[in-house]
Amino acid sequence: MLSRREMIRNSVMLGGVAAAAHALPTWMPRLAFAQPYNNPRGDVMIVVFLRGGADSLNMIVPFGDDLYYEARPRLAIPRPDTSGSDPKALDLDGFFGLHPALAPLLPLFQGGQIRAIHATGSPHGNRSHFEAMDFMERGVTDHHGGMTTGWVARHLATLDTGNLSPVRGIGWGAAVQTALMGASSTIALQSIIDYHLAGDVGFATQMMQSLMSLYQIGDESLYQTAQNTQSAIDLIASVDYQRYVPQNGAEYPEDDFALALRQTAALIRADVGLEVACIDLGGWDTHTQQGGIEGNHARLMAQLANGLAAFHQDMGTDMSKVSLVVMSEFGRRLHENANNGTDHGQGGAMLVMSGSLVVPNPVIANWAGLTPDALIDGEDLAITIDYRDVLGELLRKRLHNPDVQQVFPDYDFTDIGIFG
Amino acid sequence: MMLSRRNFLKVFGVSGLSFSGLATTLAKAPPGTFAPAQIGERDPIQHIINRLTFGPQPGLYDYISQIGVDEFIERQLDYESIQDNETDHRLQAFPLINEHGGDLIADMDNNRRRVLIDLIGSWLTRAIYSNRQLYERMVHFWSDHFNVYINKGPVLFLKLDDDRDHIRPNAMLSFIDVLRASAQSPAMLFYLDNALSNDFAPNENYGRELLELHTLGVNGGYTEDDVKAVSRVFTGWSITNFREPNSPPGRFIFRRVAHDSREAIVLGEVIPANSGIDAGYQVLEILAKHPSTAQFISSKLIRRFVADTPPQSLVDLCTQVYLDTGGDIKSLLREIFRSDEFWQAPPKFKRPFEYVVGLLRVLNYDVQRPRRFYETVAYLLISMGHLPFNWPAPNGYPDVGRYWMDNLLPRWNAALAAMFYDEDDTSPDYTGLVAMLQNAGVINDAEAALQFMARYMLGRELTGDELTITFEFMRGSTDDLWEQLILGTVLILASPAFQYK
């Protein structure tokens, strides 16, 4: 029986997943690449993108720099040694501290399982969200060159791991992220449980067969998507997500971000062939009412930290085959604005969480300081570490990509020594 | 047997049709005969249906073939002369669209859900039923162009005013009209933080997007200094609050005390000191008549109505029309619809909203309990990532097929849901569709009936291969002709042919 109620229920169950912010996509045909390199699979890479330009200066707080406090009389996070029992920055290395809302990550910093890279970003100098995200996700710094695919897609295309899975890549959300644009064997996924054709199994199988025949005689690029959807449906049906129990006592929060991490953990455990996953967390464009210790920005940080900490706990020893990176399109200006917020800036921060970190310092930075001379245009944190150095090293050392020049063309990489 | 026979019997009766139902439907059926399109050639009427409206519905093809394509375009442009009583009647289910959002904010928690259903429901109602289809498409165009995000603060409430008072009255006038209306829309002023911007420290969010997304385009020739100057000019463009003397909350207000009245230089033009609110109007005029804006708006319109990659030849032509007419929207649309590029446009992948509305139109839904029904449809749209007003970034939902193509599964499930929905006396108009087949004399011949449905839904007959595949599917499940036809129809609705327009 093809139950109408069931179908409607299924469609209703898909609800509640908020649409994530995405970069402005351009027309992106699936490109033919040169013969890929053969290498064994490395870590699963998870890319968390904080949409809106996260205010890194209030996340990884440079409490050792007085100019930070001068520039942010209302928003600054108090020094760790401030008297009184009110919340304050959590000391990491005597100069940088964590916003207290990121406290769930403090044990991971202390244990060497997570690191921050500060004063980092992309040197395009663009303060438009859409262009900055688009540049960063395509791995370019300007409009020239006509690179139409995403950096994660190019990584998948240039590396043949012998993995025939239809879900080498997953973009969590209603559509894949620009970083995955142009990738084959990649799907947009919102919910493991709901990823199937409505109706009973027999009907769904017949309809799927007929649909595939119709897509086969249609547009080729759409046929590839349809084919991949079918394979992915079959594969994901084999994941018994309802019975998935996070391990090591991990408890995920019930928001969309944590849900994506929880499902990613289940897919990693089910060994479906996942190599990369992209997850968005939006809302970081804090022009107004950003707040300091408490407020909108602190709530977002708590969401980020609680999700990451739960995922890390769930993965346990399996973190040895996982590397996660957190990035944003740009940081925000040093000086707070009149609306209890901050405006678009340049240098920002990244986080890397992995079982294979070798750098001893909790915060990696070539800190140039906050004097007007050290800032870009006298107002933005300078970019002293290029985000491509971080991603390039991650791809090379942990995902076995032998030619990161294909991923970030025309870039001269510097080894930072983050990953072992 | 895969399908519930009870449902078919209920609809068609034991021998096929309930006679009285058919008679009523036939009486309502439009006069004239349905002229089929041929494979391999573009049927101009179908092209017009696909691009200017939200898709085929019974009677529309006949109507256009009677009055002619050119006349249809002209009537659609002159939208105010189109009678739309049935839609107005249906809109009575959504009374809050006549309210000011500011008056509903005080009881925000209780009103939030009602406002959301009224906004989404009224949009779906108009897209499905309105006779002013091209006008509705332009409302959607500007709502994307001047996107606001209803999950930020009170924007959901203010969107009621934005839609009714700012976008709809200006959607077919000149660009400057809709630009000026948007600049004074409380929803926009809150969404892009201008409501709180002041001369002490101007907030640049609105100023930047005004240049980058609303007018010149990102490479339109402005500098960071222009962003700062424009942001200063718009300080004081704000929204009334709860303690405002002489005004209810949530309305536009120019706050002289918060306005930076110093001279400003925008794109090389001097805005004199102490111009008050006129400084902002002056900037909007400068932006609206700028050649970069002419090109940016032309190119976005062409992307919407012609192709994901706007042909440069047509962009150039429309840019000139824009500059010659002062950004007259009807002139731009006329130019597009008479261009070769439009008539030779490649197939365009439907965005989820138009795909879903297209399903409901083609199945001739007569929605009975609209608030419940459209809430269900809203969940479908969420699963496809295309709930109206729910795109967080100010650039609006993408208008290129590539963005939407990776998510086919929810579309297939939407086709199934639309075909088999049956709650609250709301379902596909089986009776009306059968009457159409009866009128055409194809009711007892599976192939002829299927081809008729294909012409109706796609504007062409199925190819030999498509026919073979569809027949195999529909005959594999049931021996009943009507059930077969329903299966064949839902397969076509989920197939690539109906994903494109």
What do these coordinates show?
- The complex is a heterodimer of chains A (420) and B (501).
- Chain A has 420 residues and is an alpha/beta fold.
- Chain A has a single domain (31-192, 239-398), classed as Alkaline Phosphatase, subunit A (3-Layer(aba) Sandwich).
- Helix content of chain A is 29%, strand content 14%.
- Chain A contains ten helices and 14 strands.
- Chain A has helices spanning 4-13, 66-71, 106-110, 129-138, 151-158, 201-216, 220-237, 256-270, 296-315, 387-398; strands at 37-38, 44-50, 60-61, 90-91, 97-98, 114-121, 159-160, 169-172, 186-189, 276-281, 322-328, 348-354, 363-364, 385-386.
- In chain A, strands 2, 6, 8, 9, 10, 11, 12, 13 and 14 form a nine-stranded mixed β-sheet that branches.
- In chain A, a hairpin with a 5-residue loop joins strand 4 and strand 5 (97-98).
- In chain A, helix 8 runs parallel beside helix 9.
- The relative contact order of chain A is 0.21.
- By secondary structure, chain B is mostly helical.
- Chain B has two domains: 5-83 and 349-499, no CATH class; 85-288, no CATH class.
- Chain B is 58% helix and 2% strand.
- Chain B contains 28 helices and four strands.
- In chain B, the strands form two sheets. In chain B, strands 1-2 form a two-stranded antiparallel sheet.
- In chain B, helix 17 (312-325) runs antiparallel to helix 18 and helix 26 crosses helix 27.
- The relative contact order of chain B is 0.12.
- At the A-B interface, helix 1, helix 4, strand 9, helix 6 and helix 7 of A face helix 13, helix 21, helix 22, helix 23 and helix 26 of B.
Task: Please summarize what this structure is.
Chain A is α/β, with parallel strands linked by helices. Chain A has helices at 4-13, 66-71, 106-110, 129-138, 151-158, 201-216, 220-237, 256-270, 296-315, 387-398; strands at residues 37-38, 44-50, 60-61, 90-91, 97-98, 114-121, 159-160, 169-172, 186-189, 276-281, 322-328, 348-354, 363-364, 385-386. In chain A, strands 2, 6, 8, 9, 10, 11, 12, 13 and 14 form a 9-stranded mixed β-sheet that branches.
